[in-house]
Amino acid sequence: MLDVQNESQEAVPEETGAGTLRMMIPKGRIQDKVLALLGQIGIKISFDERSYKPRCSEQRIEAKILKSQNIPSLVSLARHDCGFAGKDWIIEQNADVIELVDLKFDPVRIVAAVPEALAAEGRASWSKRRLVVASEYRNLALQYIERNQLQAYFIQTFGATEALPPDDADLIIDNTASGSTLKANKLVIVDELMNSTTRFICSKEALKDPEKGKRLEELRMLMESALRAKEKVLLEMNVSSQDFERLVKDLPCMKSPTVSELYNGDGYAIKIAVNSSEVSKLIPLLMSRGARDILEYKLEKIVY
Fold first, then answer.
1. Is residue 14 included in any domain, yes or no?
2. Tens place of pLDDT per residue across the chain (304 aa)
3. Domain shared by 140 and 160, yes or no
4. Are residues 247 and 175 in the same domain?
5. Which ranges constitute the DSSP H helices of 18-137?
6. By the number of CB atoms within 10 A of the CB, which of 144, 209, 231, 294 ranks highest?
7. Do residues 72 and 212 share a domain?
8. Contact 189, 80 (CB under 8 A)
9. Strands 21-27 and 61-67
10. d(CA 81, CA 188)
11. How many distinct structural domains can be found in the chain?
């Protein structure tokens, strides 16, 4: 069901001009990560909880907040130019959109699960009964029923799908991050349909538009550079002339270390960008090879 803006809610005072990107922001648990990413690339979104039309620091972007499930279809219909949505809902809605960036936010698996008792009986027993299959994912569930040749009745759910078995459903199609909720409800995963993460998507029409297409490519580049930066840190260190070759040899970095001579020729300053996961092992190694005064910096963007 589409979110509808009430008359009492805040309205955007200006009409959307030519070249203005109409961007959809997902409502719910993924919203904070999306807003943080936009902020990292210089786009500030501010709103109150009752408004579906937030204020954007960039005049050429008009934002609207809707549930993630609504975004793929509306972008596919070109009612909006771009937005953020899970791969699962893109596939579920067969949305004809362009995926610009895999943000890798909110990774989940879409799985089929059954109660422990039914799992113990084995798949052969399923053909002997008419199953009740429940899911928020209507199309994915119906495709699963057909693919597995199940005699089944489908029930559309609207959240808390895992609560239905065993009393109200025999099998569910649901998303899970760790499987702990399914396990807590005594459900066993019997199939994995797909993996899903949050994607930045746009309509084909917007990408073809000269102004909008250029801005979308810029946003793609900026988002990718910000996501790369999350995985790396910058290390800066000093080293004496006698330890320089021993330190710089096989030094991990993106391409090659940045080296500059210290004042009065008293050794060298070295900068390297490395994976943040390597830092805890790398710093002791650098110290053992003569590195001193090591500084670690967070990076905002890495543009190739």
1. no
2. 333 333 333 333 344 566 799 999 999 889 999 999 999 999 999 877 777 888 889 888 999 999 999 999 999 999 999 999 999 999 999 999 999 999 999 999 999 999 999 999 888 888 788 999 999 999 999 999 999 999 999 999 998 999 999 999 999 999 999 989 999 999 999 999 999 999 999 999 999 999 999 999 999 999 999 999 999 999 999 999 999 998 888 787 767 888 999 988 889 999 999 999 999 999 999 999 999 999 999 988 888 7
3. yes
4. no
5. 31-40, 71-76, 87-92, 116-121
6. 144
7. yes
8. no
9. parallel
10. 40
11. 3
Q: Do residues 153 and 114 make contact, with C-beta atoms less than 8 angstroms apart? A: no
**For the domain that residue 237 is a member of, what is the CATH number?**
3.30.70.120
134, exposed or middle or buried, with CB in 10 Å at 0-12, 13-18, 19+? Answer: buried
Angle at CA 264, nearest 5°, toward 258 and 270? 15
* pTM, to two decimals: 0.83
